[in-house]
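Working notes for the structural subgroup meeting. M.R. asked for a predicted model of this chain before we commit to crystallization trials. I am recording the input and output together here so anyone reviewing the notebook later can reproduce the run.

Input as submitted:
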Amino acid sequence: MQEELKHIPGIQFVDHVAIAVKPGELEAQVKAYEALGFQQIHREEVLGKDQVREALLRIGEGPNLIQLLEPLTADSPVQKLIDKNGGRGGMAHIAFRVKDARQAFDAMRAEGFQLIDEAPRKGSRGTTVFFVHPKSKADCAFGILIEMVEDPAGQ
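Returned structure, recorded in token form:
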């Protein structure tokens, strides 16, 4: 598996760790992370198939973020995750920054990874994203949902 990942071009660093929060708890969660010294840098409602309200918080001065996701509807994948977790929030996914989402998508498809999206698509804050299934490789499943993120601003 590690050899295969060397063939995926442009992975730069961990962009964010996404955490599912129960409906109505986003504000309290933001305050809790701010009490740790994290700085809120972005808010957005992401509709389409995601159906979430997100808050992004920067960790220190680096590029790494915490993404808090509150479901907007019962059909939201985040709500389904909360339901699967017995009504509790928790880790939703980990996201890696890539230089070029299309290039990474094509390379991962060629390597046989199970990709959830049919193609890279618009994400929050003007990014381009795609998701990789937790059981992506039969020989070695990741065990967690992975998102690949291209930021056109390079930030």
